[in-house]
Structure formats: C-alpha cells, structure tokens
Amino acid sequence: MRAAAPQSKMHEQFEDWRAGRALYKSVMRKISRQRRAALAEAVFERLAAVNPEPEGELQYVNPFTLLVAVVLSAQATDAGVNRVTKPLFAIADTPEKMTALGEERLAERIKTIGLYRAKARNIIALSRAIVEQHGGRTPKDRAALESLPGVGRKSANVVLNTAFGQPTVAVDTHVFRVANRLGIAPGTTPRAVEDELLRVIPVRFLRHAHHWLILHGRYVCKARKPLCGSCVLSDLCPYEPKAPAA
User: Fold this and answer.
1) Is 172 labeled as catalytic in the residue annotation?
2) Number of domains into which the chain is organized
3) Which of 119, 154, 222, 235 is catalytic?
4) Is 245 within a domain?
C-alpha cells in the first residue's frame, strides 16, 4: 500500500480557511456589527500599544521591488523571498533593469522559490507592462496594479498600503484566521473578511491594520497551536478553546 503523501502548505491553508468558515457560523450568531466595531477598536488599541509602527517582513527598496517581492511571496515564506531578492535587487531594482535581465536569468536567480518559472515569466511581463504602459513607474491605483501579470487583489493591497500609504487591508491566511477567531470580521472568503474589516476598523488604525494582524497571526495566533496564554488580546477574544502559553 502506498504511504500517504505529506500535507502540502496549500492543504494546510485550505484546512485553516475551512476552520474559518465553521467559526464564522458560530460567531455571526453572537456578535453584531456594532459590537464587532467596538471589539476591533479595543483590539487595535492594544496591538498599537505593543507595536506602534509595525512593518512587513519583505525587504524592498522602492515600490517596484516591493511588487516583485510580493509576487514572489505567493506560497513562499518571507525569509525565503528575502534570501533571493537581496542579490537580485542589487542588479535589477527597476522595471527596465528587470526586463533587460530576462526571464531565463531571472529564473536562475529565484529557483529556490516555489513556482519560480511561472513567477519569472510574470515578473518579466509585468516589468515590461510598467515600462510600456506606465512610463516605468509602478502604478498607484488598484485597477492598474491588478491588470499586471501575476498581481491579484491581495498583492495590490500590499503595494497600495506599504508603498503608497493607502488604507487598504490585504487578507492573507493569517489575517483571515485572526479576523475570524477574534470575531471582528467573520467571513467565508478573503474578500468578505476584507470588506468587513474596512467597515469595523477605526480610520486611525487602517494604515497599519493588516500588518498588525499578519504579525499577530504569524507569531501568536498560530493556526495549529495559538499562544493564547501569552496573547495581549486573550481576554477580548471569543475563540475557544484557549491554548496554554508556550
């Protein structure tokens, strides 16, 4: 009998999101939007007190290199992306230079990243599009960003927020999980969670909201073993059961 294959990261994320859907059904019956807004304010006040200026962990030098790093980060860790982008951005930090580098040489430089050939193809294509359609400048509006090869709504939100300071919320697996567990934005899809977060997060916290949620999900509110006992939000959070501190 063939041994079962190990679970992939994608499978783990699917299980995470399926758990989010189950949580949604129970939480929605208990918490009104007005209460969620009050809870969200309390949550972000605490996260801001602990980390007033949160930063994403992808390394970049300008809006274009942030866009490239975000495209590379799909199904990859930030640390793994940073290992390849540091030498890459030393020689190709503009769409013109990236286009000149070419798909084959780019692929060789990013081959430790998952799906590297498809990502190399998209990065060269989006670099060419930025040069030809946007005068070499990374666009600042959602429609233009999402029209670029390999760039979806989440990636556009990251660039709009981090590079251009716009109050967008990028919903990745961490944000999706934390928003559902806290009950501030229960939803069954990333877009549903994003829309609800934009409704309940106070304006003064929107600039850094998704960074706070990502970091909290990555290091505290983990998928399988959340560190509830050492969480600054533990007394605000309706998620059960609470895990002991590590």
Assistant:
1) yes
2) 2
3) 154
4) no
Q: What's the pLDDT score for residue 20? A: 54
Q: Name the residue range of residue 150's domain.
A: 63-162
Task: Among 143, 162, 181, identify where a domain stops.
Answer: 162
The burial class, CB within 10 Å (0-12 / 13-18 / 19+), for 32 is exposed
Model pLDDT for residues 25-67, shown as the tens digit of each residue: 555 556 788 888 999 999 999 999 999 999 999 999 999 999 9
- CA distance linking residue 104 with residue 221, whole number of Å: 39
Give yes or no for residue 87 having a pLDDT over 90: yes
Cα(40)–Cα(43) distance, rounded to whole angstroms? 5
Q: How many helices (H) and strands (E) does the chain have?
A: 12, 0
- Annotation marks residue 78 as catalytic: no
Please pick, among 172, 195, 235, 242, the residue that the annotation labels catalytic. 172
